Structures are given as structure tokens and as C-alpha cells.
Amino acid sequence: MPPPASNCLAQATTTPEVTTDMLVVFGVVGLALVLFLTERLPIDVTAILLIVVLVVLEPWTGIDPETGISGFANEATITVLAMLILSGGISRTGIVQELGRRMAAFAGDSVRKQVFATVAATAPVSGFLNNTPVVALLVPVVSDVANRGNTSPSKLLIPLSYASQMGGMLTLIGTSTNILASDVSARLGSEYPELHRFSMFEFTQLGVLVVIVGSLYLIFVGHYLLPERVPPRADYLAEYAVGDYVADVAVVPGSPLAGGTVRDASAALGSDIDVVQVVHDGGRSVAPRQGTRLGEGDVLVVRTGRDAITALEDAEGVEPVGQPGTTELSGSAEGVLTELVVAFDSRLVGERLDPEEFREEFDAAILGLRSHGELVAERIVGKRLEVGDTLLVQAPPEALDRLSHGEDVIVAREPPRPDYRTGKARIAVAIMVGVVAVAALEIYPILVSALAGVVAMVVTGVLEPNELYDAVEWDIIFLLAGVIPLGIALEESGAAGYLAWVVVQSAGFLSPIAVLWLFYILTGLLTEVISNNASVVLLIPVAAAAAAGIGANPFAFVLAVTFAASTAFLGPIGYQTNLFVYGPGGYRFGDYARIGAPLQLVLSVVTVLGIAFFWGV
């Protein structure tokens, strides 16, 4: 086992020896980076694979089976799990949505006021609720604010995501990254006396500074840099060019489809054709079930490609009705048009799109698809879905209510009849205040107060017992469990100390505050390609050792890494809230950098100077 990193660095004239253990751990880190970057495997599967690899290579990594699975029982992991459940309880009451509506009531048609309302409703709440579900809840609210004010949603949705990230830095519980960073800091405390577990409001003063500066930028500068990708009050059907791919066909007398079901019609017409509506005796069935019976004279509204629409003219048992592009699909009492965003932990991620199965399971008919912000015009059947992909659907109002409470998709417009437990709102707020107060007063650790809050949510009826599991983003829990042992291996093998020595040798001629700024920038760039939680685990040990090596304050460097990992503004994949607004805002990849790069640069200076002022370097 190599000597502690701080000792290695203190001996400035000594070059640390590169051991086999270090090389093996570097190899595992490299594997993790490749898998996170390429997304060849789901993030939770990647995390499990890392545990397996670390344990199999125990002679070099030092990670035995017990240590390998220790991340599942780690205080940070359990605390994040509890906080996600508490956030889920708050969301069930509709408090966040109501706050968003009230803040937007005065905004009118002023873009600046709308951005202010978005930031003001998002940032403070994100300090106490996990910012990921906050954005998921507010996407439809902010979209409606834009539409009512005749503003492009593109002007407001990226500011929504950025405000949630900045707000997450107000308290320990604002984001899972803070909780994980606190755990890593506590683990390193035996080696660096300056490091410790974060208190509830450990860095709130810096978080307030970041929120104020970032909000001013978004309100007075940022929205000018965002193009209007989605027109105000956009016509969904026109935006997705649905008219080019939808047609009406009637079941003719004597048709073999008469007396059959929608399933029979789909099989007869071909796999590329999806029946999205059935018109029977003047009534319109939206997203019909596979078992829906058909009769002579029924009109089937089908979605397919241009070539298949032409082929329908020769299909047996049906004949085209009207002209292509004239099908009636506008929203009505029977069916509401809206967008669904594939969520980060959705079961749909990685699955190939089957409109018939989707309609059967979710009671919603798919009319269009955007992937990576680009319209998938022709064939959507069989398209593999990714996080942030956006589906244009038509569904009955009650189906949208169910979808808005699920974990698979984010409904981009509020359901017509939202079902919130408004009567439990005060209880939910009281429970959350109690959790924060108990932890802040250090009566009990945040882990204990959060778990007690979960029990209170169930006992008081804010959450049903079966809803506990739906509230948890399990991919985040598995990710934490996988990267925690990787961080331990990085420390125990001496790999973190070696990387710190390389940094010191490369940037030793710079002042400590300049090195601190470099770590902020490095963390921000790394977070753009891998998980923010992984960035914290990999870089905090290196940053602490580098600080010790140049005689700086390790706690200052830990804070710089923590803040940088939670403010990823350069692209849609650096932070999951950025993905949530990708489709509804109609954004392109470069739109994030256009508004985010100046913000990242400004906040890097503000954060580093703030750390130096409050804690010293």
C-alpha cells in the first residue's frame, strides 16, 4: 500500500511510484468513462458491472465483496433514496405546480417577467426537493406560461433547467450530488483534518450568491441568446408534420375487417400502420384498445409513412376517405394532444418503439417522434428510444392524469383534470420542514430524519405504500452504489494521490486560487460526458490531495468540485434536467452551449471567489 497522498505530495522532490494497483484502477476508471460516455449499457447496468469488475480484480483494487456492495448500504445512497420519496410525496400534493402557476400569474406577455417567474418558482424549491422531479413537475407549467403569454417555450425551458441546478446548491439535500460529496468528504476526513460531513446549510451562503448571479444572467441576458425553436402557441400537428403521415380509411360493406378487432385490422393492414382513432356512429375513440370491435362504415384514422398511405388505396376491405392531410386530429374532449418526454429512469429507454404496445399499455396513440431534437419524419416503428426523446401523443384526459403520476414519461402540458392530494399539502410541507429542522439542528443525522419523514408521509396518507417505489429513481440509486466502491479503490490504491501529484507538477507554478479554478473547470467539463455523481467520486479525492500538495485548503477544493458537478450547462447530456427540456423546447445541441458557456464561465469565477472569501484557499 503506498503512503498517504498528502505525504507523497508533501515530499515535492519525490516522484511517486506507479504501481500495478494504480494501473488496474486507472483501467477500471477508463472503462467506466467509456461506458458512461457511449451509453452502450443502461446506467444502472454499468454501475453493477463496475462492482463486479472491482471485486473480480480484488488483488489489485483492494475491493472485496463486502466493500463492493457497501454502496447499497452507504449513508449517501439511503439518504438520496429517502429524499426522492419525500420529493415524490410533495409532488403528489400539487404544491410545486401551484407555486409555478401563482408566480406566473403576473408575468403576462413579458419574456423577462416570465423568466423571472420561472427562476423564482424553481430555484428556492430545488434547494429542498430533489431538483430532478422539480423540473419534471414544472415543464408543463412553464410551457403553459409561455403559451398563455404568446412566448416561445424555447425561451423558458432551458432557464428552468439551469435554475433548478443552481437552486440545488442552496442546501445539502438539493441534489444527490451534494449528499454523495458530503459522504466522500467525511470518508477523507481521517486523512485531511479540514474535511468533514456537510451540515444542512454548510454552503448556503455561496449557493445564494450563485443563484442570484445566475438568475440575473438568465433574466437580463440569457433569453436573448436562445432562439425560438418552437413557435408561440405551436400547432403540434404542424410542428410534427402529422398531416403527411395520417389518413382516414373506411371499413367497406362486406369487408373481412367488419366484426373483427383493431388488432385484426393492424395485422391485415401491415406492421407499419397504427390505428390511432376509430370513428363509430359519430363517436370518436382515441387510442383504441386492441380488442375494440369494428363494424361496416367505421372510419379508421391511421398513422404510417407516405408510401404506406399510398398503398392503402389497394388494401382489401378498406377505402381511403377524403384527401391526405385533411384528417381531423385536433384536441377534443375525447383526446388531448400533448408531448411526452422519455424520463431518465423510464422503462422505455433502450426499447424499440411499438405504437400498438404503447397504445395498449399507456392508453395513448403516438402521432410523432422527436429524437435528439430532430423530427423523425417517416418510419417511427422500431425506433430505439433514448432519454429525452419526445413523443407527440393523443390520449383521453384520464390517461394523461395517470401518465403525469408515472415515472416513465414527463407530460409536457398539464393534464386537463389533474388529480392532486391538495388536502395533504400542509401535512407534506410540515413533514419536510421537520426533516430539514431536525437535520439542521443536528438532533439526528439527515439519514435518520429523512427516513422518519418517509414513514410520516405514509402514516399521514400523503403517499400510499405502493407509491414509495415509484417515487425512487432507481438508476440513480444503483449508480451511487456502483461509483462509491470505485472511489474507494481510487483512494486506497494511491491512484488519486498520483493524479494529484501530476496536477501539482503541471500547475504548481500557478497560485492556489488558479488551481482551484482549474479543478472547477475540469469538473464541469467531465460532468458534460459522464454522470455528475461519478465526477464527484472521481475528482474529490484528487482535488483534496492536490490541495494538500500545494499547501491549500482541501475543503475549498472539495466545494469547487461539488459546485461544478451540479452546474452542467454546456449540453443536454451533462445533467438529466437538461434532457427533460430538450424535446419540449425543440432545442438543438448547440443551444445549450450558446446560453450555457457564458453562464458557466461567470459562475466559475463567482464560485471560486466566493469559496476564497467564505472559507479561504
Automatic annotation (TrEMBL):
UniProt GO BP: potassium ion transport
Primary location class: membrane
Protein name (database record): SLC13 family permease
UniProt membrane topology term: Multi-pass membrane protein
Database matches in InterPro entries: Cit_transptr-like_dom (IPR004680), DASS-Related_Transporters (IPR051679), RCK_C (IPR006037), RCK_C_sf (IPR036721)
Signal peptide: none
TM stretches of this protein: 20-38, 45-63, 75-95, 115-139, 203-226, 427-459, 471-490, 497-523, 529-548, 555-575, 595-615
Keywords noted in UniProt: Membrane, Repeat, Transmembrane, Transmembrane helix, Transport
Entry GO terms, CC: plasma membrane
GO molecular function: monoatomic cation transmembrane transporter activity
Residue span, RCK C-terminal domain: 234-318, 324-409
